[in-house]
From TrEMBL:
One of its GO terms (molecular function) is phosphopentomutase activity. This is Alpha-D-phosphohexomutase alpha/beta/alpha domain-containing protein. Residues 40-96 form the Alpha-D-phosphohexomutase alpha/beta/alpha domain. Keywords: Isomerase, Magnesium, Metal-binding. Belongs to the phosphohexose mutase family.
Length: 104
């Protein structure tokens, strides 16, 4: 999928939070490409990236996607893995994606 296709998909999303809509509206062509040209990667230190709209940014959608993937992985590993659980951390010095994403 190209970044323009991904951009259009996000633009058409009716329930996109207003903050992300605003960010998308203010992006220039280069920022659009950078934000949508790939999926944010999960590396050895977890997920890291700029907060913002796009598949290559930290936002509610990228965190939900990785959370669902992690849940499936743990489920595949069986009962013992489920009992161990997970740790989710965030950087309190910045506007944490986890903190802003979902109210628990």
């Amino acid at each position: 999928m190209t970044w323009k296709t991904e951009w259009k998909k996000w633009s058409a999303h009716k329930e996109l939070p207003s903050e992300l809509k605003k960010q998308m509206a203010e992006m220039n062509e280069r920022e659009r490409e950078e934000s949508f040209y790939k999926q944010l990667e999960f590396g050895t230190e977890g997920m890291r990236g700029e907060l913002g709209a796009g598949s290559n940014r930290m936002n509610i959608y990228t965190v939900r996607k990785v959370t669902a993937g992690l849940a499936r992985y743990i489920e595949e590993k069986g009962t013992e893995a489920k009992k161990r659980g997970v740790v989710i951390a965030y950087d309190s010095r910045h506007s944490s994606a986890v903190e802003k994403i979902e109210d628990y």
